[in-house]
Amino acid sequence: MELFDSKYFFYSDNKLYCEEIPVDDILAQTGTPAYIYSKKFFVDTFKELDSSLQNIKHTVFYAVKSNFNLSVIKTFSDLGSGVDVNSEGELYRVMKLGINPKKIILSGVGKTANEIKLALETNLLMIKAESEEELVLINEVAKDMNVIAPVAIRVNPDVDAKTHPYISTGLAENKFGIDVSAAFKFYLQKEKFGNIEFTGIDMHIGSQITTVEPFVSAVEKMAEVFLKLKSAGLTLKHFDLGGGIGVVYHHEKTFSVKEYADALIPILKKLDCEIFIEPGRFMTANGGILAAQVQYSKKNHDKNFIIVDAGMNDLIRPSIYAAYHHIQPLEINPGRKEIIADVVGPVCESGDFLGKARNISELKRGDYLVVMSAGSYGMTMASNYNARRRPPEILVDGNNFQIVRSRETFEHILYDENF
Ligand code: LLP
């Protein structure tokens, strides 16, 4: 059985710790399933990324969609990070934290008029536009409000990010962005977009990208547009690289942020503008785990199943992307036999699994296991399917931990229903 550990989640005396706390001490208080995050991971990771870009004027805008717990967002914003939001709900969250509007950017391929209005009322730093119709609408809303909207066009560079098709966004076939030639044209239509100030250019080619080449190809294409616009008289203030930096879930070979910076900075320096970056997964994935308790184990037709109390409603990535998350016991019990088993949840779907054909030590009813690398797109994609309550979230900081979101109650789930 392979054990994944790190500086933030590691075994000592056969017990899993998060920072300085045995995870079972936390679970004794919170029960399972539960998401547990390491604050130190978030802090170190932000600093690592931010300092790798120190040779170029830049701002990190944490993509809150990967983990929008208020305490997690606050951890990053306290370090000087901006935020990238994708909806009015995410905007509401970050405003609740009192984040400076000039540190907020708004993304989204289908923004409503209301979202655009809200963004303008909030006076945030920049709104992205992903279609001609959206540009027209932003212009109209800004005109009605008698303001000038700061806009960056999200350009679709038609580059293959070589990632899972559901999270690839920079190909011509994807719904995102505006193609290079149309974007160039819109940028220069000053008359048509009189209530827009084009402040920047943006890309986001996909997520969980494990080589730097797609970024380099996309940035080269976009840099060309940037410089052509400059020659045509439009000098943009910022160039947004989007998110997408891949992380290790299993044995992926990824690149370091230094390699990323070394490959991109020489191209970006020529633009002489501020660089934005919108990482989500890189900042949070390996800073979180999902802990679950074994309910039953059984052997059916020679196949082993470990049935736990966390399911696809808590962590949907294995079900929808066939994503690998490492699974291991909370406590190592050297006497236990190793088996190959599917680790499944209690939801009434065969797609409800956390891992298939895993080498793991035999686990008994009442034992705990943990699903690793669950800090991104875990809780933010959790649902109430089967009327299950979403799990609590716990933030560990050294030898302290705080329940930063408590387990939902059944009344929470019924809150807005009438009969
Ligand atoms: N910026 C924009 C405009 C985005 O759409 C995204 C992610 C990001 C930044 C952050 O990307 P990251 O650094 O996290 O790769 N639910 C999927 C991932 C969807 C990503 C959506 N957009 C998953 O669980 O793998």
Keywords:
8-stranded parallel β-barrel, 9-stranded mixed sheet, 419 residues, 26% strand, TIM Barrel, single chain, 21 strands, 12 helices, binds ligand LLP, alpha/beta, elongated, Lyase, Ornithine Decarboxylase, Chain A, domain 1
Detailed description of the structure:
By secondary structure, the chain is of the alpha/beta class. It folds into two domains: 9-38 and 285-414, Lyase, Ornithine Decarboxylase, Chain A, domain 1 (Beta Barrel); 107-279, Alanine racemase (TIM Barrel). Helices cover 28% and strands 26% of the residues. It has twelve helices and 21 strands. The protein has helices spanning 23-30, 39-52, 70-78, 88-96, 113-122, 132-145, 180-187, 213-231, 257-269, 281-284, 317-321, 410-414, and strands at residues 9-12, 15-18, 21-22, 34-38, 58-63, 82-85, 104-106, 126-129, 149-156, 178-179, 196-202, 238-240, 274-277, 288-300, 303-308, 327-329, 338-344, 353-361, 368-371, 393-397, 400-405. The strands form three sheets. Strands 4, 14, 15, 16, 17, 18, 19, 20 and 21 form a nine-stranded mixed beta sheet that branches. It has an eight-stranded parallel barrel with strand order 5-6-7-8-9-11-12-13, surrounded by five helices. A three-stranded antiparallel beta sheet has the order 1-2-3. β12, α9 and β13 form a beta-alpha-beta unit. α8 (213-231) runs parallel beside α9 (257-269). It starts with 8 loop residues before the first strand and ends in a 5-residue tail after the last helix. The mean pLDDT is 97. Bound molecules: ligand LLP. Ligand LLP is lined by residues 63, 65-66, 84, 107, 167, 204, 207-208, 242-245, 278-282, 317, 321, 377.
